[in-house]
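Usage example:
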Amino acid sequence: MLSNFAYVQPQSLKAALKQLETPEARLHAGGTDLLGCLREGIFGAKKIVSISGLNAFKGVRETSNGGLRIGALTTITQVERHPAIRSRFRALSQGAGEVASPQLRNQGTIGGNICQKPRCWYYRGEFHCLRKGGERCYAVGGENQYHCIFGGENCFIVHPSDTAPPLVALEAVVRIVGPQGTRSVPVSRFHVPPSEDFRQETVLAPDEMVTEIILPPAPSGLRSSYRKVRARRAWDFSLAGMALAITFKDNTVQKARVVFSGVAPVPWRSKEVEVAITGRRLDKETVARAADAAVREAEPMEKNGYKISLLRGVVEEELLAAQSGESPG
Amino acid sequence: MKNEEKGIYFAEGLAVPETPEPGKDPKPWKETNVVGKSRPRVDGYERVSGSAMYPSDYSLPHMLFGAVLRCPYPNAKIKRVDTRKAEQMPGVRAIISAATPEARVLWPYTPHMKVELFDSHCRFEGEAVAAVAAETPYQASDAVRAIDVTYEVLPFVTDERKAMLSDAPKVHPAGNRVGPTEHYSRGDVAKGFEEADVVLEESYRTECEIHTPMELHGCLAYWDGDLLNIHESTQGVYAVQSKVAEVLDLPLSKVRVMGRYMGGGFGSKLQPGKYTVIAAILAKITGCPVKLFLTREETYLCTGNRPASNMKLKAGVTKDGRLTALDFSVVGSGGAYPAGGTLLVDWLVKDLYLCPNVRTAATDVYTNAGPARPFRAPGHPQGAWALEQMMDALAKAIDMDPVALRLKNIPSYSQARKGNPPYTTTGLAACLKEGAKAFGWEKRRKEIAAEKPNGSLRRGVGMAACLWVAGGGRPPSTIILKLFSDGSVNLNMGASDIGTGTKTVMAMVVAEELNVHTDVIQIEHADTGTTQFATPSGGSKTVPTEAPAVRRAAIHVKQQLLEMAAEQLKADVSDLRFKGNAIVHGNDDAKKVTIKDLKGLKKRGVVVGVGYRGPNPEGKVVNPFGVQFCEVEMDIRTGEIRIVDFLGANESGRVMDRLTFDNQVFGGITMGIGLGMTEVRVLDEGGSGKMLNKNWHDYKLPTALDVSPRMTSFPIELPDPEANITGAKGLGEPVTIPTAAAIANAVYHACGVRMTETPINPTRLGVMLSDRPKEA
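Running the assembly step on the lines above writes:
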């Protein structure tokens, strides 16, 4: 079924990086996406490099300035349940809680979650599409009910992650280690839109790996949340969702980061909504204006026009909830 | 169980049903000791612990694994099949294709439409092209992929709505109509509409649902000389036997099919598949057992579906709630071969409510897609989607409660059948009235009407009713019951237990009649080599078909025991009766003999009882009825729906086992939620014609969170002594018929949007909500 490959379990970061130098080596963290990709022939593998032995990258630690360092191998369940994440970075805890199903959350890792391959059924199916080296995107003129309404250009995938949008909203940074050493990239610049490169989902080079995700300290007055709408209530990707990180002062929005899921090929920062609400109280008028702004630039395809009204609904609901400080649905 | 003595028999003094004289029917059970109680599955431990051997668990020495190469196009002709590379691959033992003499057999898609097993014209994606037997499943799968096929790819049509257009590609040379449009008519529809105070007209559509039972479709086949043995995951071993024997031209006696445990079937396993015959041929050629179970992806393409239904319904009603006319049409497709694309979709329109003027038209067309197979209550949930939403709309239009409107139109006889035969019983009115009361229908409607909106959340309640066209059971069934000298029992029946608890119910019938513990009843079943002919388990007929025959077999055993006792006690049979573990004489309790001390039994070692299923009542119809109620909570900004609770009120005659009864209700509702809210087969109509969501993630079955944790099974138990000698009617299908429509009605009640197309979820509902008039 699968092509033959070697399987190695290095016990140190150095050894893991060495193994990754092999052509067509693939990293195995939780494996929930890797197995599907191998089986569906999304990519081949000569060597599978399991990093489950790299204990240094498991778990969550406080940083000296009040932020958090989340090891890339921390499971989604651990991220969801971690008390510090729950209390200070609620959007991330909520995002993690919305991922897939309990089994997948127990197995999948936060590092893997932000590195997922797209779920487009043409990409995953027997179609030699643009992203797989083919000539065209089959979603154009095809069954595009689950495809993007922002940032499509040439390939119309949506980014599948529920943790990446909160991480972008919370201004998290990804630590990447490779043969050249360590580099840090804001999560907001980690994902590659198809307009830049339709063959690549992230800035990771094949011989690099994500080791940590760093959350800067939460400013006082921060209210963050993540809301996701899906076609069924579990084990389903976002149809439209939104991560919010709003700093309030005297009930007025001082600073806002608004990031959509399920509507664009990368976690989609909505500067339009941010502008519409910054400096204002989230009253009905402001919220209605923000909802208009949210979808102003949207370009729906033939079968995903519902995402416009859906996204508007999510924006309205979440902004009103953020103002009242209520726990959003 | 305190009072029971250790051992086989229940305590003395416990009543055993009276034994009728030979040739006479027994009286209906009155007070029962076992039947109707909540009894866990007799095979529950085996199933849960993993010791139960399902067909896919079997493994035999020298066993090979089969895999099938399937056409990747919806319509293509095969020009060349090159197996040379595959033949050289490690572990490959046989490759068969149209060029293989042993594989040149005809596969009957219907009795009148037979094609080559490996037909050179593949009319749907997933049609079989060739097959491999290899030493491991991986080798077989790799070899399949190494077979080089040259296809001539042809234009296709996969949407039944487009198949009738004049420029649509032809699926078969004669065109895309399976037959002429089928018409039904009674009364005068035009006159009926004239008499109506309100006439409404609406179009409805339900999407195509795929069969996805837990255990994959497939079998293990091996030859023992000229005897072909098959372990198959099937709903009916005799159905597999007859079709395999027909295709391979073997006597029935030379095909032994076994399927004792099986992991679920909802109609798609009523018959074998090409895979069964392919496994048998590969086993013959290699001389080894061949196990061939399809992959999940394959089952999405070729093991059947509930076809999409495109319906129109025009209905007239008077102000006081009398239906005056129903005019219904449906277009559907069973796929590339005749498979009942519109089968029974109009039945509820014709038969559920009193209406003198009814007209229906059903047009079944071919499409380049996988053939349909019966799917839990074929046609009925689709018809209910239209009819029950229409009833809801009519009730609103005449300002009447939806339950009250239905109560005004209850028939006591079947209007769609010739001669209007009466139902033996109809619990429709009782299900409506008592179900509504148990659910709190009126109270909840009042509460919701008085409620202030809670942000974007709205609540609504909905209901829908049904009957199921079959469910009465019928002959034939032959049961053999053996009572051994220690009083333990062997029950021998041909029927399969497809997960519904058939074995448990039958053991309870034996326990009731013979007063033995169910755990000393060994059940030998679903084996054409050792058990008697039975029709496949489907149509909600297994209990009403098999249970009466089981009861008769038990009575036959008792009659023989009474004769033995009469001889031993030198008494007349008519003076003897069963009492606990003994047979006693009239009023003289001292004159008795325990079963174990019967000399005749000791001498013979066994008493064999035979029971047959008697005929159904002449000129009457035995149908089950049901009504479901639900409450939903929805977010009118996003179209998200949470099902708050569900109540199923079902009239299926006698409740045989309360636990299996409730299981059917909960399972049926769950499946109905799938039709109503999540499941859609997505074909790439505008591009490749291929199925895009052939996996368990993209094809969305309801998850635990989509199903309400609050579900109530509310049996309406009406005595139905005419139906059969157990009084039980079928249940497995009526439980899923009204679900989707009840949800749609609740959604309408909550937000004023009428969802005429499945599935009701944010991908459809969101747009409807944003388009609706503001005041709704």
